[in-house]
Amino acid sequence: MARPAGTTSGQLSRTKYWFSFALVTSLFFTWGFAYGLLDVLNAHFQDVFGISKLQSTLLQFAYFGAYFFFAPLGSIFMDRYGYKKGIHLGLTLYSLGAIFFWPSAKFAKYGGFVGCTFVIGCGLSCLEVAANSYIAVLGSPKYAAARLNFSQGFQGVASFAGPMIAARWFFRGKNATTLDTVQWVYLAVAGLGLVLNILFYFCDLPEISGDALAEEMHEAGIVSDQGPFWKQWRCIFGWVAQTTYVGAQVGVASFAVNFMFEQGVGISKADASQLFSYCQITFAVGRFVGVGLLNFIDPALLLSIYAIACSTFSLAVALSSGKAGIGCLFALFFFESICYPVIFTLGTKNLGRHTKRGSGLIVMGVGGGAWYPPAQGSIADRNTRLSYLVPFTGYVAMAVYAIGIVVSQSLNGGFRFRTIDEIAEQKKQVQDREGQSTPESDEKRKSDVYVETI
Description:
Organism: Steccherinum ochraceum
GO molecular function: transmembrane transporter activity
GO cellular component, one term: plasma membrane
Distance between the termini: 33 Å
Number of domains: 1
Main location: membrane
Oligomer: single chain
Low-confidence stretches: 441-454
Transmembrane segments: 17-38, 58-77, 89-105, 111-138, 150-171, 183-203, 300-318, 324-346, 386-408
């Protein structure tokens, strides 16, 4: 089967553009809700099955490990069959994983829950490859990071709304020691996936292909995608940065309740859980604040600032105590907010024909969430506060990546404070040169064609 014919966002009508944007953005709420339920289930299963905290983290390992395994496969599928069929595949796996929570709860099999979580993770990894990539290329590259932050802001909203609803209405009283409510919660989750699958089936979702993106780049003289994928260093190192960042983010969140409870300032576990929900709200607010900043500030520069702030505050959490440490933790959640979407847009920028494959690699970095928490947990068993030195290493790696891009941009075209549309700028320069073309200057112009190296 041939690859689906594609277009670019500039060829879409205003109505079709906004409909596509809104429908794909709805996917971010879907997996934000599913991810938010993980922490609630961890605590719930400890009580129901009598398992240890380490055993309960198998859910996180299955969820994030699925990203590492399935994201590259999802990108290959979408490169072959298009974004829309990739979304259908993701939603189908998502619904199947959720519906099989019912027999797992009916027969009280913890292994069944772990397996179902893995299937859900496979579905969500496929959706992330599709949705992140689609939003990033659905419009001017100048605002790609701002668009993706806006869409992912709804993931942040769902990540604290899901557990708050579940903890309040489904896992209290007699439900705290049974699995009955788990069946109904995930039946509703499966229903949500089914409804979205039907909506996407009937919607006319334009296919934005790598070939169309490559043609647009080449018209501007940007030919960085003509080399093999393994030479797309910006994407390769973006995967490393995303792996370390997501691992750090998941580790920070996994031990936040324990950290606040152990600070000796009269905070109970219930209070710490409430404060953790406020941390997640801070994270979501930070995403929307980031949208405003990214409309004006160069994404690589802003990520550098935020990465340095994350490194500083994670170190402060590890070395501070009491209310000061808790305040630093809130600041850390705020500065984490823009990191994932900005790393994604920087890593997949100007990939042209490699766009979907690169998206799969960057999303594969979510697998870092399976490796960092156990490393941090081994230290947290002795000292939770000092365990925050582990995520510090992830933020430092992210900072190196962001600063490296800023330096590269400065060497190739001067320091950049404001965000720009590189393709539009290059097209303008090409047109200006062609307008002043002479037979002698034509040869020089051919040798001066801009090639973006990173």
